[in-house]
Amino acid sequence: MHLKKGCAPIILLFLLIASGACGSRTDSPGKPAEEKTVVENTMGESERIPDRAPNHNNGENVPAIKRVDNFFNKLNYEKEDDKARNDLIVLLENLLQQKVDDPKILWRLAKLYEGKSRRAAGDSERAEIMTRAKELFAKSLEIEKNDPLANYAYAKNILSEGPFDQNSIESACGMFENAIRVDPDYDRARLGLARCYCGIRLFEKAVAQADKLMAIDKADPGRVSRIMLEDIEGIYREAGLFDKAEAILIRIIEPLGNTSAEMIDRSQLMMELGWVYMEQGKLDQARKAFEQTHLDLVHSNRSIESHWGCLYEATGNLYLGMGQNKKACVDLRKSADRERENSQRQLDAAIACHLCGDAKNALLYIERALGVEKLQYGSFHRGALIMKGYILITLRRFSEAEAIFRPIVDQGGNFQVDIGLGHVALGTNRLDLARNLFARWVEDKEAMAAYGKKINGLKCILDGKFNTFVYQMAFMGMGWILVRQNSPQEAIYYFNRVLQQDSENVGALLAKGNALGRLERYEEAEATIKIILKSNPKNARALSELALIYYNRGELEKAVEYFQTAKKEGDKNYTCPYEGLGLVYLAQGRTAEAKTNLEKAIAINPDIEYKKYNALAKIYLREGKKKKAKELLKKSMANNPNDEEAAELLAEAFDASLD
After folding, report:
1. Assign residue 30 a region: left if phi > 0, alpha if psi is -120 to 50, beta otherwise?
2. C-alpha span between 489 and 486 (Å, rounded)
3. How do residues 76-102 score in pLDDT, each as one tens digit?
């Protein structure tokens, strides 16, 4: 669920960020960025014009061509010479007006216009300039379709500027192939073809070209540049060949020293290496790679906020992979706080907070993400809106959540929206609607199997965690409905479905323990709840559930002890300990204490739970407060229409009113 709003298809995304989780690197080892004399373009390569080229040009044009090539070979975009570029454009346009249709002039002029477009005042001016560039590229190939440099330049233009439809991308692939056919030693064209294949997910073909480049590198050391090696690593990583990606990264990292620039360079490479280790399940090696990244960033004195944002994103995902969700949440929040204008960072922090049960901060970060999206794109990203809906459900703000989900349903909806609306319906006691929404998925084995496969195929750990959470919430929702309808045995089936996937899922263990308690299978219920307490002895919900088991078994002193501990460990808005103590004190005849705790429980949360209403109604009936008792019992029946005790007490209250 990444915020990639407004992005082109994967081909552009892949070409622009090549092989970095947080962007590509442009520094050479030991050389600060400001000292570069050759710039890398969006494909991560130099703008140098190779010496070799077909000899079909008019000899009179050689001086002009050399001037253009010298311009590109000395180009530094940070100190770009706009006057020199414009002078060359005028020179070449004059040659064309003299009816000099030299393809080498044409495609070089097109490249000059490409550069000029980056300085355009607005979108319309830029579009006009790029239209001229494309005309020149096309005319160049009309005259000399076998010019490898023209093929390469035009293909690269398509992949950076569009259009991004299948036909255009295939045309770009054809141009790269043509360049290689004419000049088999044109390594950059081979790399462009590999990346083009990778971008349209033809990984086998992409890897074949990458392997050829590595064979060239082995036969002729130094011919494949450091920049090209980084791109080849990205191809292997995208294709899932993490062992090959790892070997290239280690090779690039090994010669780096300890100058400030080299430490920054190594920090970014080590971060990528850490991600590669994570993909292979080598979590300890990933941790060491990220530790080295941290050291280099600290000692380089040249780090910027985005470097730290990327590192905390990486360590956050590492902790998720290690099952340390709280540590993950801390680091993903650091990442978001470092880069407040990065909507993806805010979304990741929101998801992490939500998975850790911190709904308050989850809402803070999702609002930030949506704010950045609104500012940058003028609209909200659908994925972030869905995430906000789930956070609002956790906060029991059901009407707001429904207002988010409904328009998305009108646009086609999806699994996440259906399950979200199901929990909105469950939270507002529309059990039949909730069941229908959940059943669409939990009873469709093929759909759930496909969704499970999708989750397992996600490369982003955080996305996988959230989608797994939604997947499980479908089964949890069905189970909770059945518990509310006094069918705990059937409910256990759905809780077990979650536990089959995640044996230590706290929500499923709590729900199953509660269902077993309702069936009076107290020993099984106790054993189930103690699984949670074994790893987290201070879990307030598990302590409350265990106390409830003791209460139902008549072990009232033990129940008081555990409810008191749960109250101490839980937050101030957690009602179960108050409700539980009210029930226990009532059973012990400590009516005043029971009344205080039950009233506190209702004041904190008037929804869903119904036993607190029944218990307090009993006290009011004893006190002769029949009207108050009836109001409570009606609320209890609204929360659980199947509650027989509330129905009996309500009948008793009406009988008492008639006396």
Report:
1. left
2. 9
3. 444 567 788 888 888 888 888 876 677
